[in-house]
Structure formats: structure tokens, C-alpha cells
Write a structure and sequence with these properties.
Helix content: 40-55%
Strand content: 15-25%
Low-confidence stretches: 6-24
Distance between the termini: 54 Å
Number of strands: 10
Order of helices and strands: HEHHEHEHEEEHEHEHEEHHHHHH
Number of helices: 14
CATH superfamily of the largest domain: Periplasmic binding protein-like II
Mean pLDDT: 92
Structural class: alpha/beta
Radius of gyration: 24 Å
Shape: globular
Number of domains: 2
């Protein structure tokens, strides 16, 4: 009879074994990313803490950096796959042949980048900085815009004030308090936290002079060898950006938890205010193309780069399109 057939019995046994064997979990793809210590890194922090990258199939190894250009240098050393950096070090890196590509706009952060003084300072305007010491991070777009646009707008020229190179934002507040400098360019969350503590006040942000795009970059190696990992990263990152835009209070709470682990017990409302000063606009559009071309001309005129890099070659807009289409 058919029911006694050895073939039928074998099929039953094999089916039972298949049912009893648990499904093998999908192996996560490793990816090494930089997380910025300023609010520029908020989307990465949220994506990590909410498990968005893991849900997109990634095993993310991450490191914090205070400056995008330091993350860029870690890419050069082969230690990172993805990093966000400002336009100035991005262009300088392209001109020097750094093997990386722009894949999206992390943010426009001019609203979170301020020129600040101690609360009790008698300085109320950039025009009062003659003979003063200004804390700036050397080789960044923060420095470039201050020197080339903000100071000249008030009639200040090179030599009218002294620049103190203080790379890490967290070190600029102590320098102000110690009166080692008179003024500092500073970003959030440090601005919002120090304002809340009554230490500083902002005399101006950067938005009147520059939108300050921050560029998401990936190494050419990871784009060539594992483009699907870059798309997966962008999908997870876009989910965090969506949360920041649509549920800002929830996003601020998640970010506050991260700050607390770093020893900064800043109220959620204060961080919410800081995060709302950011503009999350991921696409590399025609306006960004024009912005980069103009900055290249400025950097050549200032002697910071010798020749114009191939910007079109240094950008990949397709990976973001794929990530956005997959959401």
C-alpha cells in the first residue's frame, strides 16, 4: 500500500526534521560608521539606540568623533566605512584624492552653529571683536565661514582678532569660562546646555551667512564591494530622520538618554529645542551642487585648495534614491 511506502515514510521524516529545525537567523552585514558628538550625529544615535540599523540587516560598529574631518581621516586610515563631514574638509579631501563619495546630506546645521560669549560679557556684536580672541576649530567649515563671511560682514579683516584653534566643542566652554578666549563658535547640544546653565549667550548664528550643509560620505571601497550595505545604512538613517521630523519630542528623549550616558544630564526640553534648530534635508539637489561649486571657488581663492576637484565624480545620488524607494 502507498501509506507503507518507504518513500512516503522518508518524506514524513524529512518534513518533521525540517519543522523541528529552527530557521537560521540572517547574518548581519558589518559596517563601520562615525557618530558626531554634536547634534549632527543625532540621527545616527537614534538609529543605533532604536535598533534601526540592525533591523535593516547591519551589524554596525560605531565610534564618536567631535569633528567630521577627524572621521574623514579615520576613513583614510581604513578604520571607517561611513562618515559625515562638513563641505570644507569634504572638498579638501576630494582635491587631495581621498577615496570617498558623498551619498546624502546629513543636515543643514546653520541654526545650531552659534557665535557665543559668556553671559556676563560686554560683547553684543561681531563688530566688537577687534583685539579679541576667537575660538574656532581649524580646517572646518565653521572656521571657513567665520573668516570669509561673518567677520568681513562687520568690517573685520585678518589680524583684527586672534584665532585660537580649539577643535572639540566641549573644550570651548571651559576656555570661555577661564577667559582664555573672548568668543567661541559653538554648536548644539553644547550651546543649548550651556545656555540652560546660564553660562553663555548667543550673539548670532550662522544662518544669515551660510546654510552649512553636512555631507554623508562612504568610502569608494564599500560602495563598490557592498553597495547594498550602504543602502541599508541609509534606510536605517532615514527612519531616524523621519522620527526627528515627525516625533521630535520622542527623538529628543532618545537623544537625552544618550547624552546622559555621556555624563550630560540635559533636560529633554532643552535638547528638543536644539534638535528643532536642525534642518534634515537628505537629498543632494541642484542647490547643493551650486553650493559646493561656489565653495570650491572660495577655497581656491583662499589658497586652501590648488585646483577644483571633480565634484560630479565625488557624488553618488543613486544610493539614496534606492534607500528612499525601499522605505
Amino acid at each position: 500500500m502507498i501509506r507503507n511506502s518507504p518513500f512516503v515514510l522518508l518524506a514524513v521524516v524529512m518534513a518533521s526534521v525540517a519543522l523541528a529545525t529552527p530557521a537560521q537567523p540572517q547574518k548581519l552585514v558589518p559596517l563601520r560608521i562615525a557618530v558626531h558628538t554634536a547634534v549632527i550625529g543625532a540621527a545616527d544615535v537614534i538609529a543605533i539606540r532604536q535598533g534601526f540599523y540592525k533591523q535593516e540587516g547591519l551589524d554596525v560598529e560605531w565610534r564618536r568623533f567631535a569633528l567630521g574631518k577627524d572621521g574623514r581621516d579615520a576613513m583614510i586610515a581604513g578604520a571607517l566605512d561611513v562618515n559625515a563631514t562638513a563641505t570644507t574638509p569634504f572638498i579638501v579631501g576630494l582635491e587631495k584624492g581621498v577615496p570617498y563619495t558623498a551619498i546624502a546630506i546629513n543636515s543643514l546645521f546653520c541654526g545650531t552653529n552659534h557665535v557665543v560669549v559668556l553671559k556676563a560679557s560686554d560683547i553684543n556684536s561681531i563688530g566688537q571683536l577687534k583685539g579679541k580672541r576667537v575660538a574656532l576649530p581649524k580646517g572646518t567649515v565653521t572656521e571657513h565661514v567665520f573668516l570669509s563671511k561673518i567677520a568681513p560682514a562687520y568690517g573685520l579683516k585678518k589680524g583684527d582678532y586672534e584665532v585660537a584653534n580649539i577643535p572639540d566643542s566641549k573644550d570651548r566652554i571651559p576656555s570661555l569660562v577661564a577667559k582664555a578666549v573672548d568668543v567661541a563658535a559653538l554648536g548644539d547640544p553644547f550651546v543649548a546646555a550651556a545656555e540652560h546653565e546660564g553660562l553663555i549667550r548667543s550673539i548670532e548664528n550662522y544662518c544669515k551667512y551660510d546654510t552649512l550643509p553636512f555631507i554623508l560620505t562612504a568610502t569608494n571601497k564599500i560602495i563598490k564591494e557592498r553597495p547594498e550595505a550602504v543602502v541599508a545604512y541609509l534606510r536605517g538613517w532615514l527612519r531616524a530622520v523621519k522620527l526627528l521630523k515627525e516625533q521630535p519630542e520622542k527623538a529628543a528623549t532618545i537623544y537625552a538618554d544618550d547624552q546622559k550616558e555621556l555624563g550630560r544630564d540635559t533636560p529633554v526640553a532643552v535638547l528638543d529645542k536644539a534638535l528643532r534648530r536642525m534642518r534634515w534635508e537628505p537629498e543632494i539637489n541642484a542647490e547643493i551642487d551650486r553650493y559646493l561649486a561656489e565653495e570650491v571657488r572660495e577655497l581656491i581663492a583662499a589658497g586652501q585648495v590648488k585646483a577644483a576637484p571633480d565634484l560630479a565624480k565625488g557624488m553618488n545620488k543613486e544610493l539614496l534614491r534606492k534607500a528612499m524607494a525601499a522605505r
